[in-house]
Amino acid sequence: MKIIDQNYINGEFKTIDSSKRLTLKNPTTEEDIAQIYLSTPAEMDEAIHCAATTFESFSQTSIDTRMDILQRIHDELHKYEEELIDLAVLEFGATITTTRRRTKNAINLFLAIKEELKSYDFIKKDDYSITIKEGVGVIGVIIPWNANLAHLCSNIAPAIALGCTLVIKPSEFNALETQAFLECLHRANIPKGVVNVVHGTGEVVGEILTKHPLVNAISFIGSTKTGKRIFENCSKTIKRMTLELGGKSPTVLLEDANLAEVIPHVLSSAYSNSGQACHAGSRLLVPKAKVNEVKRLLLETIQKLKIGDPKNEETKIGPMINQTQFNTVQDYIKSGIEEGAQLLCGGLGRVQEFEKGYFVKPTVFICQDQTLKIVQEEIFGPVLCVLPYESEQEALNMANDTLFGLSAYVFSSDETKAYEFAKQIRSGRVLINTAASKAKNPPFGGMKQSGLGRMGGRYSMDAFCEIKSILF
Ligand code: NAD
């Protein structure tokens, strides 16, 4: 069993001065795989002071210097890509094919941001004013467990580009991948104190980070519940904030959608990351007359989805990350049954062929009522709610009848019609006729209680800037 007992502060691995620890299990086999030590408030405080001191010098470095750092981090991560993939599959249970794609995208982000840096508008001049964009300062980053490497890279790359320094509190549940990432960062020989990482719980070290007066901005990715707490903490010192929170995204099948073609996309969105994806299309809105056909196609397609060992190339659905998440999803399934939703497939209990592992049965409910808890709340597991609609206006109302607004999907044979519908959905992102767009670093973020601000490529750089006017 691997022991993770060091933070990364001021360019050094420093032993955590605490006896509190958490044991991580392989979600596929339930074997113990790692123990992570949980830091104290004093260790978080030390990291923040280090980042604040480093900002003074790092913010003055040239763009060429920072481009060079981004390149070096990319190159080092690229060399260890296979190791990073294996660790994500081991400790999170994400399927190998998804992890491979996500790891590559995350690593390549350093090159994309390097490219953006070449043409970034740091200074704009006119006759009587100069407008300057400058790095916001010390950025506190708090991330969840469902796409660890992507979240690390999507914050570190733009922060470095802007000359900011970081204190990161990763999720407790991705300690192995984070450790391998930090070893790459260390070998890339980046200036000491630019990236600091403190392991620990949100309640202890996360709270310190969001309240600390030396932290200028918080980039938080996680649940809406925690986001609200962080919003409150940040208000005490008026920190800049980006909040990337939860979702309950609608997938709308318009009347003319080719059902046989689109159902595999519907499921690949709903069960993306085994359902543990913020953008999962977990509410499926279907014309009433087409419900029976959709049910048949869903059953047919789900039967073909391979569930099991995430290392297997054929696997489409792996386990939940841990027992807690498995239990949460079970509670929602129970609630759906108790509230009278019709169970089309899946349901309570572990997938029968496995004695071990946190495998939830891919589940579909047919729901007559938008007010059901399973329709309104984010489940974060492979549970899809099908909702019939009478008219496209009703479908639109239902799509928008949610506290969230992170993502949405519209399927139609007529792209123009789908586009007109998409424009009316209150959501940060709408995908048309696909579950996975090939767009390069489009903005990402939520409306309503799905968040604040936008990240992604140039948008992440904007999020990490202050804007200053000098007037004549
Ligand atoms: P979570 O909110 O429980 O935890 C996220 C992080 O916050 C963890 O590192 C945790 O330790 C920390 N934390 C907890 N309490 C804290 C506190 N009081 N102060 C500071 N930090 C605290 O979320 P999770 O269960 O790890 O992740 C799943 C959630 O993340 C889902 O809701 C999902 O939709 C969301 N998510 C959103 C996006 C997005 O881009 N919008 C992406 C991925 C995941």
Automatic annotation (TrEMBL):
Annotated active site: E244
Domain Aldehyde dehydrogenase: 19-470
Sorted UniProt keywords: Oxidoreductase
PROSITE patterns referenced in this protein's UniProt entry, alphabetically: ALDEHYDE_DEHYDR_GLU
Domain of life: Bacteria
One Pfam family from the record: Aldedh
GO molecular function annotations of the record: aldehyde dehydrogenase (NAD+) activity
EC number: 1.2.1.3
Coiled-coil zones: none
Family note: Belongs to the aldehyde dehydrogenase family.
PANTHER family tied to this protein: ALDEHYDE DEHYDROGENASE, ALDEHYDE DEHYDROGENASE-RELATED
Name of this protein: Aldehyde dehydrogenase
Species of the source: Sulfurospirillum halorespirans DSM 13726
Organism classification: Bacteria, Pseudomonadati, Campylobacterota, Epsilonproteobacteria, Campylobacterales
